[in-house]
Amino acid sequence: MIRRALLTLFAVIFIYPFVLSLATSFKSRPEVAAHPVTPWPASPDLRAWTDVLVHSDFPLWTFNSLLVTVVATLLRVFLDSLAGYALARLEWRGRGIVFAGVVAVLAVPPIVLTVPRFLVLKELTLLNSYTGLILPLAVDAMGIFLMRQFFVELPRELEEAARIDGASIFGAYWHIVLPLARPALLTLTILSFQGVWNEFLLPLIVVRASPSLWTLPFGLSTLGRGGAGGQSFDYPVMMAGSILTIVPVAVVFIVFQRFFVRGVAASGVKG
Amino acid sequence: MSVEPAAPVARERGRGGLRGRQGLAGWLFVSPALLLLGVFMVAPILLALWVSFRDWSGLAPLSASAPAGTDNYQDLLTHTGVVRGDFAKSLRNNVYYVLGVVPAQTLLALVLAVIVNAKLLKGRTFFRAAFYFPSVTSSIAVAFIFVFLFSPNGVVNTVLSALLPGKIGLVWLDDSDGLIHLLLRAVGVGSPPGPLRHEFLDLSWWDWLSGPSVALSSIMILATWTTTGTFMLMFLAGLQNVPVEVEEAAEVDGASRFQLFWRVTLPMLKPTLFLVVTLGLIGTWQVFDQVYAMTSGGPQKTTLTPAYLVYREGFQNSAMGRAAAIAFIVFVIILVFTGLQRLVLRRER
């Protein structure tokens, strides 16, 4: 019983903030000040939602986020699995060194890359462009590592049979191996979708100066902050924006929960 | 049996041809990934190292920057001044942040994992999902939610006022008082005793020993809240590896539940525990998004972190060289933890 009470308490601590922010987005500012804790609005007010959806660039940020997330995720899943397959199954000179390199890159923290990524994108004249937002996210070492681990454990017979039947190496990979790798590909897709959708640091350094290219998290960071000091924050607007940013990932999370779990388990094994 | 000898010959020939094709295909398959990793991960590190020895604003072309020798590093470590003082503050803040967040998230994740893993628990999937959900959400969205929770008449103050005597009216995110200073003030020590007025890296010993400010503590609570779920999943995966027979044998031998956990389960979780602690150490040295969205390094620079300083110096103060130097010092700190992790994990296997 103590166990159950403890679990319930923590479930409330972890979930109530989301419920409360949803409720707050439907409250008027005076009501938020008077009743900050109630999980429902006394007199529902759509002002914050109109402010966010009609009077801000939120729809544009959503479009940008969708575009960047979809393209980066497709590229990442394709390129990561291609590289992972070569590292797991093909025999070629230099494979060991390349794999060691991928594992080494895993250890590079994003914050170290802030200044030099800005520099590289500036030299390539990719600052303030979709390409600049997408390319740095189009491949990740973790994904290559995950796919390699998956392919290593797949039985070899099928693709060898296909190759003896005259299929090209890419043909065997595309038609035989990839369909078998569906669970791993789905895990990678979901991790990538979530990672790119939530990415904040890259848009901050790449498109800060072009509001038309802002993605959701960066656009959100500019919402409802009418001046210095906590009192002047427009909480209903901030909460409406936050909820809208969270919803797509929440939906994916609810539908594909076990793939998230698998992703964490797999990333926990790295070392 | 008589056909057997023929097979290896055929395979040999086939493989020889295949190996040539595979050699080409191997490189073709990895080259797009390698190109992108090279351009956006590896080259940047080398460039960052180079920039950290230059005087570059980030606005002019890099070729127009002047060599700066070790000035950027000296400004941070040996030259007296505001730059070194700010860097010292950011290090102090991050050390307190690590000391608070890593034990909190590890312990909480372990406790939740053990309870969720218990036999005959109803609603396991729900609890697991509920605890993990904050980890997958946008850092900025969640930071905004916490700005609201910690607002002067927000939820946190309301709940505390209900639980504690008197009305709690903390201005969390604008309160620069250190927790240790507050504690000392409560027992009557309001100003630094003489020896603590000496300075180290342009920050008095009294200020080094301030403890995390109230504002930083709010961010620490947020960080614990968002990361616990991930680490709980890792502990759950680790708990799957504890054989049920071992636990049952211990139970038959009359071990209490506490002994069982302490003597049987915990030792078997050691590799996971180690992984969680080192991942925690690596993650907590990179805190940026939350600082950006909640406090911008204030109040009184008590939520400044090295990661935030990289952004401030490079992109707001146009001192890219200095920003790169800070990033490199952070990199070295993180590499030490990563190296330690890989070393121990290798020995465990």
Give an account of the 3D structure.
The complex is a heterodimer of chains A (271) and B (349). With 271 residues, chain A is mainly alpha-helical. Chain A is built from 15 helices and no strands. Chain A has helices spanning 2-25, 29-34, 47-53, 58-89, 95-106, 110-123, 130-134, 141-152, 157-164, 169-180, 182-198, 201-206, 216-220, 235-255, 257-269. Chain B has one domain: MetI-like (MetI-like fold, Orthogonal Bundle), CATH 1.10.3720.10. Helices cover 69% and strands 2% of the residues of chain B. In chain B, a hairpin with a 2-residue loop joins strand 3 (199-200) and strand 4 (203-204). In chain B, helix 3 runs parallel beside helix 9 and helix 9 packs antiparallel against helix 12 (270-284). Chain B is globular. Classes of the chains: A mainly alpha (271), B mainly alpha (349). At the A-B interface, helix 1, helix 4, helix 5, helix 6 and helix 10 of A face helix 1, helix 3, helix 4, helix 5 and helix 6 of B.
Provide the gyration radius of chain A in Å. Answer: 23 Å
Percent range of helical residues of chain A: over 70%
Average pLDDT for all residues of chain A: 90
| Radius of gyration of chain B, CA atoms, in whole angstroms | 27 Å
User: What general outline of chain B do the C-alpha atoms trace?
Assistant: globular
Q: Using DSSP, what is the number of strands of chain A?
A: 0
Oligomer: heterodimer
- Proportion of residues in extended strands of chain A: under 5%
- Count of individual helical segments of chain A: 15
Number of helices of chain B: 15
User: What is the domain tally of chain B?
Assistant: 1
Task: Please identify, by name, the CATH architecture of chain B.
Answer: Orthogonal Bundle
Biggest sheet strand order of chain B reads 1-2
Tell me the name of the CATH homologous superfamily of chain B: MetI-like
For the record, the CATH class of chain B is Mainly Alpha
The count of DSSP E runs of length 2 or more, i.e. the number of strands of chain B, is 4
Strand content of chain B: under 5%
Round the mean pLDDT of chain B to the nearest integer and report it: 87
